[in-house]
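All the exercises in this workshop are built on plain-text protein records. Instead of coordinates, the fold is spelled out as a row of discrete tokens. Once this layout is familiar, the rest of the handout is easier to follow. The record below serves as our worked example for the rest of this section.
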Amino acid sequence: MLTKQAYIELYEKYEQGLCSKQEIELLESYPDDFLLRDGDWDKGLMGPQETVKNTLKSTIQNHIRTRKGGIQRQQMIYKIAAAAIVCITLGLLIRFRTSDPFIKNDSYIDSTSEQIQAGGFRATLTLEDGTQMDLEELNVGELVVNGQVVGSKTKRGQLAYQGTRRDAIVKYHTIETPRGGEYQIDLPDGSKVWLNAASSIRFPTTFSQDNRTVKITGEVYFQVAKDKNKPFIVDAGDQQITVLGTKFNVNAYDNEQSIQTSLLEGKVTIKSGQEEFLLVPGQRATYNKQNSRMVTDKFVDGNVLAWQRDQFVFDAENLQSILRKIERWYDVEVIYKGEVSDQVFSGNISRLEQVDEVLNMLALTGMVSFETKGRRIYVLN
């Protein structure tokens, strides 16, 4: 079985025109060896293994062709090796593997700045009177507002509100994550909420007797405590989501063209204008902001909640959509120089990696390149 290092050495020999016919056949067999080593193939994410293998073979064979006078020199070695490891092209793709030391040894981006680190637990609490508190500076322990204990910071990255008396004065709090931040909140009714980067939730310190209403922006995952007498209502701008007790994810960023609600457990009713949909587990509702229409389809749980596992998962996703996620998580600005690629990418990589590692995975495909200066990322092609 050909190792990656042996593959590199053999390819270097091929570039010098010294490969025998048998050695060229060995180069072409590399996809078989590579795929056999991959013991946790995810067919849902990466597609049928045989189809991907054939595509990789074709990719390498297109670069290994003979002509009179020797072997035609093709692209640089690492791009060919990358084709056998991470090639991502038009719907037939292999996932990114950041644990692979072969991939990490070389960079395909031009970086003239310090490494940009991944996001982390960052959020701001805004009280009803406008007072703001940096939750990272708040010590673990009771959260006291105007002499009243309303909750506690249970650990880094988590704030838990406690239930209050029904006759208590209702105050509204807003918790907002910046770009590069995430946070978990336990609401007064026991519901759990996770905020992705550049997201917010506004909620009362005590819910009314009739319902439990919150307002959100950005991306939020909910685990709603069951209460058949008090529906839980999420105001997501152009959309209102009503549940009794369930688990669901809402993606409602202002700079995205749609609002997506993905249901994992229970039932939810989504209302937008005159349209109303009832979702069952495994269904996703997508509301198009441009034409005000809503459609439903099925989704993969692991893809939707990847951000909670500190993963980026791209499933036939266009470059601009991917880079918007990178902007939010790494708190950077993306600037396009030239025509924007219409290629789609699939794969996964840890959100805990530095931004250069994520960009490098994309650049390895040979379809795009980047340059970073400070907190700006320039897309070169």
Observations:
- The chain has three domains: 4-85, 120-304, 310-379.
- Residues 63-107 have pLDDT under 50 and may be disordered.
- The CA atoms of residues 38 and 214 lie 44 Å apart.
- The longest helix spans residues 49-63.
